[in-house]
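In response to a reviewer's request, we include the raw inputs and outputs for one of the modeled complexes. The three entities were modeled together in a single run.
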Amino acid sequence: MWDTLYYFIMVPMVYIAFATLVLGLLFKFAVVFFSPGIKGTLGTYPRRLPRMLGIIKDAFAVPTAFNKTKVFWFFIVVYHVAFVLLFIGHLELIREFKVLQIIPHRVFLGAGWVGIALIVSVLYFLFRRFRSPHNAISVPEDYLLLILLFLTLFFGSHMNLASRHLDFQFDLAKSREYLSALFTFKPANPSDIVSPYHNVMLALHVLFANLFMMLFPFSKMVHSVFAFCSLNLKRK
Amino acid sequence: MEKEKIQELRQLVKSRLNRPMRYYLDVCTRCGLCYDTCHAYYGIPKKEYSPVNRAEVVRKVYKKYFRPSGFAFPYWGDATKLDERVMDELKEAAFSCTGCRRCMMFCPFGVDMPHILSIAKLLLIGYGNAPEELIMLADSAVEKGKSIDSFKEGYREVIRDLETQVQERLKLPSSEDLIPMEKQNADVLYVGLSGAHSIVHPAVIFNAAKENWTLSYFEAVNFGMFAGDPEKMQFIANRIVKEATSLNVKEVVIVECGTAYRIPKFLLGPLPFKVTSIVEKIYRYIKDGKISIREGAIADALTYHDPCQLGRNGGVYDEPRYVLGALAKDYREMSPTREYNWCCGGGGGLVALDNEDFRVKTGKAKKDQITATGAKIVVSACENCILQLNTIKNGYGLDVEVKSLTELVSENLIV
Amino acid sequence: MSEEIKANVTMDLKGLACPLPVVRVSQQVKKMKIGEILEAETTDPGAHADFPAWAKSTGNEIVKIDKGASSTKFYIKKLK
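The model returned the following structure tokens for the whole complex.
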């Protein structure tokens, strides 16, 4: 029973999650593409920077948050930078990227601090929503996504830290074998990436990550894609 | 609410789901950065007047009928069915918003809340719950467009009376043709409002600048936009577009009226003529030496209120400051200013509604700003703002004089 | 003809900013009975087109326009 469940989470569900993510995003793009444009422009003034530079500044430096609350801005930046670093870390779990090893490092940049930073940011975002006025404007999605992210990060970060500092077996070669097999559609049963005692932890991490990917196109997470479009309208 | 009605309203939402709307409805993370950025919230600190909450009222309806999650699992996004309570919430959201778009300056994704609220306004029209004053004004404007020929003679007659006033101001020998109408191939078609002040002062300035101009038969303001009816908005705007194209003018100059400026300038798409605000025109006349004003003529401390549609939404910031800087000995800037300037609370057609008490309360931010400058004269360049600034002045008993920029220039013109 | 018209209500709309004259007239007419006449005095040149357009769109009737030197009196009969 457990073996079947483990296999389901680690193989078919990963495919389902990826398919949902990709098809969901394609569906979102199609909906936008087939929606009518507008005749005029919805921009605001002033526009001190050229359009592309302005969009990049607005999206990545988040001046709106910086001007309002520095603490929130700090966690927004930490969260997004750490998210990108973790994404890179997971790419390295699939196979080695020479370009990423310009600065030689053990897989997962940041020696475990990236995951911790992300967990702290997520908890900040979550606890922030419990108090007024944010509780009044939040919907279940806001809490559930943060809880889901927390759970994913908690197990992922734990495995990373434990493999660095404790006697926790994490086999990078096996992980690459498993993930590249998934990518080439020749999945094998991933039984020994971590020691058998820790399979539950890995399975939970992958389960929550799968759920996160499946929800991505249908939740506010699409801001990571459409924010550039809406910021473009502001300067068009 | 009956199923048929819901279906009908659903179609109305669908008609507004253009590309920008899709982005705006999807990207909001409810981060709350906009929460306290609305002047209405500043005056009445209620969740209902926070921009994010206003947008959420619409977004929850959208989720219910247009998102798979809203249909299958409404709990996820708190998707809401259309019913009487939601219609009331939509009304409170839509008609407490002036469309100033100040909140957009604080949104990390640049979400245009008034654009989202255009769905609410359309739903209210479909439900028969839209403010009747705005619907009535939009209908009158549409009727005027349809039957303008039967009103022309009466209008021309009163315009002739105004020509005498222009003649007196400019000390000219004759009043003939001082306010030309239906002049083919004029350089400028000026579109005013109903009031004499919106025609006489610009006419004085145009004549002083020896402009080849003509006056429009129509009023520039667009109540179709305020009411939230896209078809009427288009019809009302098209009256002026048709007039301008049939007269073959090069430029359409819009009276001091924010929405009247924003619609042809930004919302109608490309037009075969240039659209300018009278404020920009005055600035150019002074810069080019076509008119002269008495520099430093105003000794009292003077401040300028940026109309949101002209400043934040139109980019006209420096021109009025140049003109006022020349006229006033003691020009004082409001704080915050320019794109962060607080809305006065009169836009979006709100001044036409029976809501003076609400407008006094929601004008508190502007009152505080004016008081902080210590100015004795508050100038603006939008009829709605002027009207609302006077409501604020009377409501709080401020010892200030509210003036329009065009009026101030006309009064201080060196003839 | 002008002597025959007697207004039930009179309104002074002189100098009011846009769009108040039409709004006030519309609000007042709503309160009146069918057949009654409102005399509205305004300095707005635009009223010469706005009032007739309003009357046409709302189904009321302007029975007389009395143009003076600086203002105009509109006599509006409530029909609906």
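As requested, we also summarize the result in words. Chain C touches chain B at residues 15-23, 26-27, 43-50, 52-54, 56-58, 65, 67, 69-70, 72 (CB under 8 Å). Chain C has one domain: 2-77.
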